[in-house]
Amino acid sequence: MVDYCIQVSKISKRYRIGLEQQVPDTFVEAITEWVSRPIKNYRRLRKLTQFDNKYSDERDNIVWALRDISFNVKPGEVVGVIGKNGAGKSTLLKVLSRITHPTSGQVELLGRISSLLEVGTGFHPELTGRENIYLNGTILGMTKAEIDLKFEEIVEFSGVKRFIDTPVKFYSSGMRVRLAFSVAAHLEPEILLIDEVLSVGDAAFQKKSLGKMEEVSKEGRTVIFVSHNMGAVRSLCSRGLLLENGTLTKDGDVDQVINYYLSNKDVSTAGRLGWTETDAPQVKELILFGIELLSETGEVRTTFQIDEGFEIRVQYEIREEIRNLRLYLRLKTTMGETVFATYEDTTIREGFNRKPGKYTAICKIPSNLLNDLTYRIFIGFDSPGYKVLIPGKEYLEVDIIDTSDGYRYIKGAFDGPIRPVLKWEVENQ
Questions:
Q1: Is the confidence at residue 310, as pLDDT, over 80?
Q2: Cα torsion at 217, 223, 228, 234 (round to 10°)?
């Protein structure tokens, strides 16, 4: 009997950051550059792929995407890979799927692999959806008869039946990812590698896809699932791998790994964040000076009763006039699920300019809305149709608790991220 279907032994992957190119200033220099370009491109390629001592003076340009990672996966295991952006999760899946080779180390795989790493990976844009289904099936080693048996099921699940004979270059990103996932999940690979591409689909398709992945796992097939959605990882996976800066820092029970990851996220539990002008999040037009949580009496706190309202205050300064400035706030659970999103001023229309000056934006959260849970405050600034100013980030953590005697509601957390007190009317018939 086979003990493992995936064996990863001390794999590392390093890249060299691209080298800066000089732009010719004169016509003569441009001609010289054109003549010598093939040789220069060859040398540039060697410098990007060679890592011997010959180029030791450029070691500052080397980035380790993965470093000394080892783990084994048993047949039928469903493993969730989590970590921050840039931790090496996608690179790991590319190594496992043999899209890229490790710089060092070894990967042994037993079984047919299907991977969904990016939107439409493996699709030929000039071929129709129908032709791409057969192409992908052939790449997986399936016969035409085997693909024929699954074809209708694949098309029905993807929801693109009307466009199945249209070249995929005309598909939207959502259509491509639906068809790609449907192909990957239905062509019966022994090992299924899924990156965070389901976020492209709508909520209904995400739910259907997660259900399909659960079905695949129950059939005894191995699944490696990369996601930032901790709720999905927890519900699907029995084991978790945590990557941090290209290294494997935690491997074990999925609940323990997720709790460890969430407890170490860069989120303040102090109730107030403030920055100096030198270390504040900023761009030339805008600087974020502070964020705080205030009770109804003006006290800075991080814990509130369910029947207490509170305020989220954001202090910022506009240095240059900004077109269509938008401050957005999202309240998230610790599992990464968005409870709601709101904007500083929904009445402002396209084309307004916000004048320079110091501002305080106040978002009031009403009482009897949130559940008995811990939430995170996600804040960012952008200018719709223009650019992202200060990228959104989780800054603060707030605890909502229920210490009542339960006379009105059952004490503790209900299902879902909110538990509002709603008005009911009861009529006696």
A1: yes
A2: 40
